[in-house]
Amino acid sequence: MDQSLILNNVAKHISLTASEKEYFSSLLEFKKIKAKQFLLRSGEICKHSSFVTVGCLRAFTVDKNGVEHILSFAPQEWWVGDMYSLLSQKPGNLNVEAMTDTEVIMLSKTDQEKLYEKVPKFERFFRIIIEKSLVAYQQRLIDNLSLTAQERYLKFCTTYPAIINTIPQKQVAAYIGVTPEFLSKLKAKYLKEH
Residue 71, by phi and psi: left (phi above 0), alpha (psi -120 to 50) or beta? Predict the structure, then answer.
């Protein structure tokens, strides 16, 4: 499988020698996931960080009433996983499901630790990835508390421009916290105004 996407992603933050690239590449696992299949289920222990090379995943929880709450989407070139579970090695709360046929490159927690020892600059790389993730989740929480549904929809369009027209509208509605019917009204109003 082509590793250029993940190597380019790493190169945005750290520079690797040829031997470091080779070592990193030797630790990677590849997985294909069909649409609607799970990469991770709530209650499982997350053992990998996953990088999307093809397709799109969604990370969500299900409340006691059976309502899904989408925390994030992971289109091509995004990292995904249950950070709490990965770091604590305890059962997690997130479901990670393929929205389309998807391919990921995975790095196990064990191999990530080996990578830190052999190529310490990867600690910097994953620190940057985790910091960006933390900032995104914090901003998402603030947005959910302070923005109108229309503003949340517009923010979704800005955050996920590559998938806005490829995922079901009920998934977009679940992400921004409205019903699919209300989302239809929001979109109609937006189109009328623009």
Answer: alpha
